[in-house]
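Structure first, sequence second, as always.
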């Protein structure tokens, strides 16, 4: 199988440095039978439970506490799987990257479906958030391949910070389920969803412009005249020029 070069990882989240130290310590203390695949599966299951807890919270508000619990479980599994592989020197970069992020995509679907079913977020707003999330994810994954840099965070917000924001929002529903903006009264998660969708779309556009500029400069067009000259030079002459 051909060699594979893993992309450089960049995490500028507010909690990234502290989180990295904590994850390395936890990974060193895990029993050997707990592997990275177990943790990845746990992370996906936890997101399913976040979605289910949101869906049930419309009639059982206590389920919002379970949202927070399952978000913590998701952090444990989703954040620790790669660290365990690196600490144990059991890296599978292509397999790990693929399974981790395809599971993240399904996790986002579960959470937003649960919110839409709960009545806490309008289905159209939930769909808009999901579309914006997928657009940003596509941009990140294309840049990982084309630029060779995996951006795990933007504007100081990475997966961990976003989990905290979602957990705080879930608990806020217990005390302040609606907000007033410009004289309009909106459900808290409708307002949050609009902000989240707009923020992710803006981030995707900014990153797209930056990466297009980077790639355009890295692969400049050769003038057509120069291309014609190269085609007109005999192959044996090019070989002689290279030897010198």
């Amino acid at each position: 199988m051909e060699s594979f070069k893993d992309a450089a990882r960049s995490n500028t989240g507010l909690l990234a440095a502290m989180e990295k130290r904590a994850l390395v310590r936890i990974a060193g203390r895990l029993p050997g039978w707990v592997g990275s695949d177990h943790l990845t599966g746990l992370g996906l299951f936890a997101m399913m439970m976040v979605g289910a807890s949101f869906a049930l919270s419309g009639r059982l508000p206590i389920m919002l506490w379970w949202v927070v619990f399952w978000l913590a479980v998701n952090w444990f599994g989703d954040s620790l799987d790669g660290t365990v592989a690196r600490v144990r020197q059991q890296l599978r970069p292509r397999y790990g990257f693929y399974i981790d992020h395809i599971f993240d995509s399904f996790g986002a679907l579960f959470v937003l479906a649960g919110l839409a079913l709960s009545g806490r977020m309008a289905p159209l707003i939930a769909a808009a958030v999901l579309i914006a999330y997928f657009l940003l994810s596509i941009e990140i994954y294309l840049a990982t391949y084309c630029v060779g840099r995996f951006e795990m965070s933007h504007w100081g917000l990475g997966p961990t910070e976003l989990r905290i924001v979602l957990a705080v929002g879930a608990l806020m529903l217990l005390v302040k389920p609606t907000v007033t903006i410009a004289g309009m009264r909106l459900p808290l998660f409708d307002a949050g969803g609009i902000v989240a969708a707009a923020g992710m779309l803006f981030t995707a556009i900014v990153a797209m412009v930056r990466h297009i500029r980077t790639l355009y400069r890295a692969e400049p067009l050769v003038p057509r005249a120069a291309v014609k000259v190269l085609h007109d030079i005999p192959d044996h002459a090019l070989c002689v020029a290279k030897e010198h």
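Margin note: The chain has a mean pLDDT of 90.
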